[in-house]
Amino acid sequence: MELGKYAEQEHVGTTKHFIESGYTEWFIPVNKVEKPLGFPKVEIQGMQFYIAHGQAPNHFLSDAEFKTRDNNIETVEKQIYEMLKGVCK
User: Fold this and answer.
1) Close Cβ partners of 17 (under 8 Å, ≥ 6 residues apart)
2) Burial of 26 (0-12, 13-18, 19+ CB in 10 A)
3) Strand, coil or helix: what is 78?
């Protein structure tokens, strides 16, 4: 199975529209979400749906870990030292 533009895992969607869109567009029933989503809406057979489009992932946590790894080591080292000081009193 071909993956969509940004997919990291195989798709589980099987709707005709999802497959024909190249796994990049799908419908979410408005009445199935708890709060409004930032997607446009469309009405199909009297029901409202959000039209969701694939988007590039935001690897903020991985990037943050990588970019601050030197500081992270120092921070953890300080925390362990302070914890040991407190325990060994």
Assistant:
1) 25, 26, 27
2) buried
3) helix
Give the single-character DSSP code of 30. G
pLDDT digits (tens, 9 = 90+) for 42-83: 898 999 989 887 766 666 677 777 777 778 788 888 999 999
**Any idea which residue has 């969701």 for tokens?**
52
Tokens describing residue 15: 């709707």
Which residue spans within 1-89 are E strands per DSSP? 25-29, 41-44, 47-53
Helix axes 60-67, 69-87, angle to 10 degrees: 80
The span from the CA of 66 to the CA of 80, in Å, is 21
Distance CA 81, CA 59 (A): 31
